[in-house]
Specification:
- The protein is of the alpha+beta class.
- It contains eight helices and 17 strands.
- Helix 5 links the parallel strand 11 (about 210-215) and strand 12 (about 240).
- Its cofactor is Mg(2+).
- It is found in: Cytoplasm.
Length: about 350
């Protein structure tokens, strides 16, 4: 009797197995980073469960207080922060955590651990009330402080090029974890019934060009002229479209897959930009560069920005190669024009 191969199709490579295979490719790897990535994945599974219960239990809405960024904390912000901190403490591989929700570095007590983690536990959490995609962003560094001592600011103030791993989890129509260790970008989709992440997007590559621009156009009048000109040209180009949902991870993930550009220019209220350098700009810049895209603040690559404080903010332009170059040329031309005008005064 001929066997129907469709009756037992393979389910694919699990995240744990993929991490193990990656570790085997490095003869001196000792497993700590692999375990750390598993700890992040575990916490994300718990957050996924909590999000799926939103509306059934009282976990949506504002908590009634602000975080260190001056933003209203949502209940799910606090829940996600606690879940990730617990997972990283119990995993034992992290000595210090920098979170968007906490003013100071969180000391885990794991003094012999080799790594520190910067994270936005739940980006876009206000969107949970209306069932819009939200996400987690994380960045991992090897500590520079002596083993056996608490984490210090210097462990984080190393600069974006010193990241050894970074990624994000998108909680949407499905939950997907995307990360890089500097050897390309891979995405894993969560299978709820099995409780496992499976490799679904291998060796992700961002299209070199794109037709999507993501920006909060409500601030258009506050943008600098080169940004306005760029947006106006995108509006007029055939096939181009605006896509912005106010959830950084959701907008970023769509553009990574389809090609496009995400813009967060300075505004009157945020003249240095609004996005957080450590747990938004650096990790997403690492991911996008590994996928063949670019990330800039308008003057230099985001990964080359020298950090000065742990909760530092930055403007950010993340996108396809051609679009970032086009925007960069406009900014440069505007800068040169201003210099010429000043020289003629």
């Amino acid at each position: 009797m001929q066997q129907d191969n469709n009756l037992a199709l393979p389910v694919g490579i699990t995240l744990d197995r993929f991490i193990m295979r990656q570790q085997e490719a490095f003869p001196y790897a000792t497993g700590e980073l692999s375990q750390l990535l598993r700890d992040i994945a575990l916490a994300s599974k718990i957050i996924n469960r909590e999000i799926n219960r939103a509306g059934l239990i009282d976990i949506t809405g504002a908590l009634g207080r602000e975080n260190v960024q001056g933003e209203s904390q949502q209940k799910l912000d606090v829940i996600a922060n606690i879940r990730f901190i617990r997972a990283l403490i119990n995993g034992g591989q992290v000595v210090g955590i920098l979170s968007e929700e906490d003013d100071e570095i969180i000391q885990t007590g794991n003094l012999n651990a080799k790594y520190v983690v910067a994270m936005d536990p739940l980006d876009g959490s206000s969107n949970i009330d209306v069932n819009v995609s939200i996400g987690t962003i994380f960045s991992i560094y090897r500590r520079v402080s002596p083993i056996g001592t608490p984490a210090t600011k210097e462990d984080f103030l190393q600069g974006g090029r010193k990241q050894i791993a970074a990624g994000y989890i998108l909680y949407g129509s499905s939950t997907i974890m995307v990360y890089t260790t500097g050897k390309g970008v891979n995405g894993f989709t969560y299978e709820n019934s099995l409780g496992e992440y499976f490799l679904s997007h291998a060796e992700m590559q961002m299209p070199k060009d794109g037709k999507i621009y993501s920006v909060n156009e409500a601030y258009f009048d506050e943008f600098d002229n080169p940004i306005k000109e760029f947006i106006q040209e995108m509006r007029q180009e055939a096939g181009c479209m605006a896509r912005y949902i106010g959830s950084l991870v959701g907008d970023f993930h769509r553009n990574l897959l389809k090609g496009g550009i995400y813009l967060y220019p300075p505004t009157r209220k945020a003249q240095n930009g609004k996005l957080r350098l450590f747990y938004e700009c650096y990790p997403l810049a690492f991911v996008i560069e590994q996928a063949g895209g670019k990330a800039t603040d308008g003057q230099k690559d985001i990964l080359d920005i020298a950090p000065t404080e742990v909760h530092q903010r930055s403007m950010a332009y993340l996108g396809s190669d051609c679009l970032i170059d086009k925007l960069g040329n406009k900014i440069m031309e505007h800068h040169e024009s201003v210099i010429k005008q000043l020289a003629n005064i």
